[in-house]
Amino acid sequence: MVVSRLVVWIAGLAALAIWGVYEVRPPAFDPQAFTRPFGELGNALAGPTARWDSVWFLTIAEDGYGGDASRAAFFPLYPALIALLAPVFGSLLAGVLISFTCFTAALAAFFRLATLELGGAAARWGTMALALFPGAFWFSAVYSESLFLLLSVGGVLAARQQRWLLAAVLGALAAATRSAGVLLVIPIALLWWDARRADPDRVTFAGLGAACAVPLGLFATCVTYAAMGRGFFAAFDGQENWGRAFRGPWAGIVDGTSAAWDGVRQLVHGPPPPLYFDKAGGDPMAIARHNVLLWLTLVIACVLLVAALRRLRPAHSAYALAALLLPLSYPVVPQPLMSLPRFVAVLYPLFLVAGLWLSRRARPLAVGVLVLSAVGLAVVSALFTDWRWVA
Prior knowledge:
Blueprint: H1 2-19, H2 25-29, H3 40-46, H4 53-63, H5 77-89, H6 91-118, H7 120-132, H8 145-160, H9 164-175, H10 185-198, H11 206-213, H12 215-227, H13 234-241, H14 251-269, H15 284-311, H16 314-328, H17 340-345, H18 348-359, H19 363-385
Helix pairs in contact: 1-19, 4-5, 5-6, 6-7, 6-8, 7-18, 7-19, 8-9, 8-10, 9-11, 9-12, 10-11, 10-16, 14-15, 15-16, 15-18
C-alpha cells in the first residue's frame, strides 16, 4: 500500500515539476476549479488525486445531478459520501480520504479472501500485484474504484465466511456504486451453492437471499434518479451519452483489435496521411498509442481470465468473465476499449490468479514482474497528473 502510493505521488509530482500542468485542460474540463481549490503548492500535491472524472464526482457532490444528463452515468454512492464529509474537509480532500480509506480496507479484505482461497503466499503476491497494477493510481484518486473494490471484495469475503447479511448489504452498496456491482449476484450465489453442497444441514437459504438482495442497490439508484426527475433508466441512458451502446457479446474485442492494428500501422508509418483510424478526433499518434496500450491491457486481462477459469472456483471465475464481458459488449466507437484498465483494476479474481502465478515462480522473476508493473504505474500516474488521457 505505502510503496504503491509513493510510486503514484513521486511520479505525479515529478511530471508536474518537469512538464508543468497541461494548461489547456483545467479551464476546459474543470471550469469551477473543483480539482484546484488550494494554493499553487496545495494544488500540485493534490495533482495525482484529481483529474478527469474526478471533476464529475466533485461536481455531483457539490451541485447534484441537475444540468448535464451525462452525470447520471456516475452512480450516486461515492459522490454522496463526498458530500457527507465535504462540510468538514472540503469536497476534494473528502474524496481523497474516502479513496485512501477504502483502498486500505480493500487490500486487507483481498488479502484475507486470497488467504482463504489460495494460501498465504499467493495472498501476499496477489495483494502486491493489485497495489502495483498500472491502473492502481485510481485507487487514491477521487474516483469510485477504491469504494467499489472494497464493497465487491468485502461482499465476496462475507459470503465466503457465510456472513450472508453483510454480503447482502455490501453487494447492494456495490450495485449503487457502479453498474457492474449487480454482477456480484454471481459469486455470492455460487459461494452459497458451494457451502450448501458441502453442508446442507447447516447452510440455510439465507445466502440465496443475500444474492437476490444485490440488485436492490441498482434498483435504489434507479428510484433515486426517478425521484430527481431524471427518469428511472437515467443510469443506462447516461451511458449512451458517453458513446456506449450494446454491440453484442465481445464486440469490443473485435473493434479493439482492429483499432489496435490501425494504431500499430500509424505508429510504424508516422503522422498522417494516411490516417488509419479515422473514428476519433485529436492527435492520430496519441490515439494510436492509446488503442495499442488498451489492447495490451485486454490481452493481459484475457490471459488472467483463462487462468482464473482453470485455477479458481466458479464463483470467482464466472464473476470475472461476466464483469469483463460487460464493457466489451458496449464498446465506444472512437475508442472501443475506453476505460478498460479501470474495469480490470477492480476485477479481484484476476489478481487472485496473478498472486497464485507469482507465488509459484522463482522469486527474481516474480519481483521483476512487479517492478515492471510498478514502472507502468509510475508512467500512467505521471500522465494522469499532467492531465494526459490514459484510459
